[in-house]
Amino acid sequence: MMHFVSALPNACPHHEFKGLRTNVQFECKTSPLTVVDGKIKVPTGPGLGVDIDPNYLQKHQPVKA
Question: Which helix (H) or strand (E) holds 3?
Fold first, then answer.
């Protein structure tokens, strides 16, 4: 979603993450997201821009809607 919103010419402030203005309540040890002035830059790597750690995924239960 961050990539989509960043491409919109008229995007307004969004709350993608439950966070503080200085910290993101989101764990991604391989590709941390850094907050600067209450904003997060869109990751620039291939795909989603972050490296997914398969071991981290195995330790957590999926959420079913």
Answer: helix 2-7
Domain range enclosing 62:
1-65
- What CA–CA distance (Å, rounded) separates 50 from 28? 8
Our count of domains for the chain comes to: 1
For residues 16 and 1, what is the distance between their CA atoms, to the nearest angstrom?
8
Do the beta carbons of residue 40 and residue 24 sit within 8 Å? yes
In the numeric block, the tokens 């972050």 are attached to 50
pTM equals: 0.45
Write the pLDDT tens digit of every residue in 6-60: 777 777 766 555 555 555 555 667 777 777 777 777 888 888 788 888 887 888 7
Question: What pLDDT does 39 receive?
Answer: 74
